[in-house]
Amino acid sequence: MSHVDTAVASLKSALGPGLSSVEAFRGQTTAVLEASSILPACRTLRDQLEFDLLAALTAVDYWPQEPRFGVVYQLYSLAHRQLLGLKVLLEGQQAELPSITAVYPNANWHEREVFDMFGVKFTGHPDLRRILMPFEWEGHPLRKDYPLGYEEVQFSFNFDEIERRKKYAKE
Amino acid sequence: MGIEQKLGNMGVVTTTLEKAINWSRTRAMWPLLSGLACCAIEMMAAQAADYDMSRFGMELMRASPRQADLLIVAGRVTRKMAPVLRRLYDQMAEPKWVIAMGDCCSCGGVFNNYAIVPGVDEVMPVDVYVAGCPPRPEGLIHGILTLHERIMADKPTRAAA
User: Which domains does chain A have, with CATH numbers?
Assistant: First the structure.
């Protein structure tokens, strides 16, 4: 049995109903968890099961499906050289889950990026603010309902009217 | 011919003040040592050995904006970087010029999204736009020579209209 399978089995016994399901596809295993059990799960995985590297922390927007957001964690075990995925599904109105910065300090910036791009709040995060967009930006760009382009493309037929409205810097 | 012929033998040249000012401005224009993205690589290539920019007077790039004359905006300007670039432009002393190098800082380039400012001319006034993605070093040098021609035709001693 690979180390990932041992880890999933211990997670099942430790979390009980906190672990919703396990998906395995072509050698990659993902355990779907509840939001409240992500912190104890990460503690167990880091301390007892030797998954000491948080390789990735990102999010997916499944709009217009509910649950809307899926926050994806990828934990890597350096001793056993295996990758385990965790996933937390969140409703669109209540996109909050505990921060795992206390367990994996590198989650600090990854959680800031997920907050900036998707609007998912991490409770207990030491410094949750925007990291890629300017600080006072409104909106979360990587959501599916965020507009795609930015400005109207200037072709020959609409050249003059766009030229009139384009805000050039004067000095 | 008159006085020029006589003085020429003694090593004296006469010209107008405007021409002298313009000539000296173009021949020793130091760019700011700053590049943003891929166009910066081509700017480095233009400064380096094969497409030498020092033969046009840009022997070195100054890292401090107080000592630089020319700001070559090389690369895409993100929304977060735009105020930083504006601050660099404000810190440069007059006379100063701006070359928008590449497509992304001329018009947004291939990007039309939340992150990229569509053209650095929304942030600061630009003198010369160089097209290309990225422009070849010869293209950048052509842009610099166009800027030199514009400056040689300038009237620095006339009061601003």
Answer: 3-165 (3.30.460.80)
Interface predicted TM-score (ipTM) over 0.85: no
How many CA atoms, within 13 angstroms, populate the side-chain half-sphere of residue B51? 16
Chain B nearest-CA distance from A135, in A, is 9
Which residues of chain B lie closer than 8 angstroms to A141, CB-CB? 113-115
* Strand, coil or helix: A100: coil
Between CA B107 and CA B98 the distance in angstroms is: 15
Pair of tokens at residue A110: 């990854």
Could you give the number of structural domains in chain B? 1
- CA dist B12 and B20 (Å) reads 14
Render the burial of B93-121: b for 16+ CB within 10 Å, e for the rest: eeebbbbbbbbbbbbbbebeebebbbbbb
- Provide the whole-model pTM: 0.83
Residue B102 in contact with residue B134, Cβ under 8 Å? yes
Each residue of B87-134: pLDDT tens digit? 999 999 989 999 999 999 998 889 999 999 999 989 999 999 999 999
| Bond prior to B134 in cis (omega within 30° of 0) | yes
